[in-house]
Every structure is written in C-alpha cells, then in structure tokens.
Design brief:
NADH Oxidase, 5-stranded antiparallel β-sheet, 38% helix, binds flavin mononucleotide, Putative NAD(P)H nitroreductase, NAD, flavoprotein
Length: 186
Amino acid sequence: MELLQGLQQRVSTPRLTEPGPDARQLEQIFQAALRAPDHARLRPWRFLTISGEARHALGDVFARAALEDQPDLAPEAIARFKGLPLRAPLLVALVCKVKEHPKVPDIEQQLSVAAAAQNILNAAYALGLGAMWRTGAVNYHPATARGLGLAEDEQLLGFIYMGTPGGSAKKLEPLEAKDYVMAWEG
Ligand SMILES: Cc1cc2nc3c(=O)[nH]c(=O)nc-3n(C[C@H](O)[C@H](O)[C@H](O)COP(=O)(O)O)c2cc1C
C-alpha cells in the first residue's frame, strides 16, 4: 500500500476477529512505532502485548479497578468489564515511561507515545489488519496500572485492539481540509 494513500484512508475497526497479527507482522508494526518523533531520543515508550489467556487476566484487572470505585457493581457490569479485552485477539498496552529531562517536559513524552500509537494503527492498516485505540472507563484507574505491573513513573495511554477486520470497513466521512486549516499571517 502506498504510504500517503494509507494515511488518508485508515479507519478504526471496532469489530475484530481471529487471527491476530503473527510474529512477523508484529515486528513490522513495532518497527513502525519506533520511528515516532521523539525529542532527545528518550524512547519514552513501552508496549505490552496481551493475547490468549492473558486477556482474561486483563479483564480481571479491569473488573477489580471498577469494583474499587463501585463495590456494589451488578454482576452483569462486572462480567462486562471482564469481557472487554476479549473484543480482539491481541491488545497492545501503550505505556509512557516519563523521564526527567531539562528540555523535554512530560507532555512531549506522552505525545511521542501517541505518535508511536498512530504509527501502530497505520502499520496495522497497511498490513490489512484491523485496529482500534481504546481507553474506556478504567484506563486511568491506579488499580489498572498496578494490575498491569506499571512502575510509578509509567502511565497507561490506552490499548490498541488488533485483529482481523470483522465486517466491511466503515465509510469515510468526507472532511474538507480547508475547514481546519488557515494561513496565519501575523
Ligand atoms: C486516546 C484515545 C482513546 C480512545 N478511546 C476510545 C474508547 O475507549 N472507545 C471508543 O469507542 N473509541 C475510542 N477512541 C476513538 C477510536 O479509537 C477511533 O479513533 C474513533 O472511533 C474514530 O474512528 P477512526 O479512527 O476510524 O476515525 C479513542 C481514541 C483515542 C485517540
């Protein structure tokens, strides 16, 4: 796929089925992630792949986080939290490891990880895979970070759900660049 065409046509895919990406595809996807812009080359990212049975463990982490805030959560709601990671064969947890740097504030490091995430989405699309960046209700809950084993200086920026696209690709909403772009003339 031509790069520019892919960049202009990528869509998120909410419905994802087996098979997930294979090892070669993942290597290509992460090579793309590692080309994200990165002030002072801090490499502020860490990616966790979660597939197979580990998705159930992640579902338990989500449910525990939700229960910390709402101990009387209904059994159906608990089951829903447990089932969230099962919506794709593979998830990539996006972790920002913020480093102290005199010229690179936290926000720039988070933006680098977000740029890496976008490269992951684009690379998955170029490989014919489906993908979608999701956060959801308990993404920023400290119990989720704890459950994933994140360190104190690490932040979870979401999950990229990845797999084979289920159903047909959604129609792109036509957008006019001119509605969002203007020349600033001082
Ligand atoms: C940081 C971030 C978190 C997101 N979290 C969710 C989410 O939890 N649930 C959801 O439906 N969409 C979420 N989205 C939006 C989807 O990933 C997607 O961009 C949106 O559905 C638009 O589809 P498109 O990428 O095909 O334009 C999130 C996007 C970003 C950037």
